[in-house]
Predict the 3D structure of the following.
Amino acid sequence: MKKILLSAAVCTLALGFSSCSETWDDNPVLNTHEGEKTANFLNNPVMQDQTIMLTNGNKEGTFHLTCSQPDFGYAAVATYKVQCSLTEDFAKYEEISQDFYNCAEVNPVNGDVAAAIQKLSGVKTEADLPLPYQKLYMRLRAFVAQSESNTQYLSNVVSFAGVSSDYLAIWVSDVPVNIYLLGGMNNWGNDGLTAEWQFATGADENTWVTPVVTIPAGTEFKVADSSWGSINLGAGAPQIVAGEEYALAASDAGNIVMSADFTGVAHLKLEKGNYILTLDPK
């Protein structure tokens, strides 16, 4: 009888351990911590010893990084961000905005890397280019998105022997571009294109602004490039009102017409593939 009772107790204990194991597997616990922990989980890149020129022609290409997952307590769905620096201590760095989720394919776009290098190098205009070949350092910031603040890891640092860029990859304000206000107020550009009606890059990316212009009420015009080519934009509304945003359309949309005399600046922005015009009175 004692043997039977002992066997039953052993079975019960075994079942208890089995139950605990199943509970752990079904309910893994996320490891959390304060601040950013460092861990060695970024692999050395294959191209680490090569010199790399980043150009307008290869800006859609990518660097290739691979890593393992830091210790989140289980195989979590993690987010990886690439950080770039010109010094190994990362005293100054740029973090690329793109998110990566696959440890085998952490591939920052060449154009984003070029922009990071140029920001770190203090590039302001095309006159600052090409940059000299310089050592580029990269590391990863990894985290679990639903608990980013207390799951962050910084990886070990890897490097590329020499990286340069020869085109302007960053957004620089106050640079004149080939976009104009062309219409009845300037003979549709037939008398020559002048800076008075020309857009320049704005403070924010994909925005442009003109100097102060004067357009009489009823004057017809368009937003166009110098050859009336890919940018040849009109308004869908019969007349537009100063201070309001208008989505511009292709050349068959008709001319833009002011509802009243206007003096001020024209703001143009590209948003989700659409050009938006605002005439801001001054």
